[in-house]
Amino acid sequence: MAVPANALAHAAELERRDTEIADELAVVRDLEERVAAIRGQAGIVGEALERVPLEREDLARRRAEADGAVTAARADVERTGSRVTSLESGRRRREDELDRARKEASTARDALADAVAARARIDERESALAEEERALLAEGDALAEAAELVAASVRDVGRVTESAGRAPGTSLAELDDWGSLVRSALFVARGTLEAERERVVVEANVLGTSVLGEELGAASVALVRRRLEASAR
């Protein structure tokens, strides 16, 4: 079959445009995923940081209660210990009464050990919470740095509005606002590119159908070009 040279050239141009659009789409989709990941993680970090002062308040309340429990337990140890000492030094001591006093003293010592351990656990949790806060703040800084890199790539996308290329900021709230704006801009850009690519595919299929005399359906641009080149041999 004689395939006009201009048809082959047209098919080659359509394939070039299709490839170009596909590359742009890949960039936009990648940026959408990166922005979504940054925004999502910023939200998680923000929520975790909001819980820190609330837990600190709870720990302060528990610490006060634990201090009171330790003070009361120490007083009970002194009281029961004094009772045992008094009974042991008495001139007419009763063994059954002394046994009870010794058991009470042992129980008081155990209670003090438990109270001291509970107080120590609160200290441990406070230290762990401070470390968690430092890690969260560091993660927030890392997210801001990652957003700066993405913002630079967004500015290289010619399909987005100028406002979408603005600096993302450094706070988690700023990252959330930036992420919302950029995702919307990228969504519009992706829709435009997908529509353009669909038009190129339609144009290629119309070209192939008119030259080959058969309905090609929704063949890819590359397939249309190969069909035309094969028919030209």
Strand proportion, as a percent range, falls in under 5%
**What class, by secondary structure content?**
mainly alpha
Shape annotation: rod-shaped
Indicate how many domains the architecture comprises. Answer: 1
Low-confidence stretches: none
Radius of gyration, in Å, reads 37 Å
The CATH topology corresponds to Helix Hairpins
Number of continuous helical runs: 4
User: Can you give the mean pLDDT?
Assistant: 92
* CATH architecture annotation name: Orthogonal Bundle
Q: How far apart, in Å, are the first and last alpha carbons?
A: 8 Å
Binned, the helix content reads over 70%
CATH C-level class: Mainly Alpha
Q: Could you give the count of β-strands?
A: 0
Helix and strand element order: HHHH
Please give the largest β-sheet: none
What does this structure look like?
The structure is a single chain. The chain is mainly alpha-helical and 233 residues long. The protein has a single domain, classed as Helix Hairpins (Orthogonal Bundle), CATH 1.10.287. Helices cover 85% and strands 0% of the residues. It has 4 helices and no strands. The longest helix is centred in the N-terminal third of the chain and has 85 residues. It is rod-shaped, with a radius of gyration of 37 Å. It starts with a helix and ends with a helix. The mean pLDDT is 92.
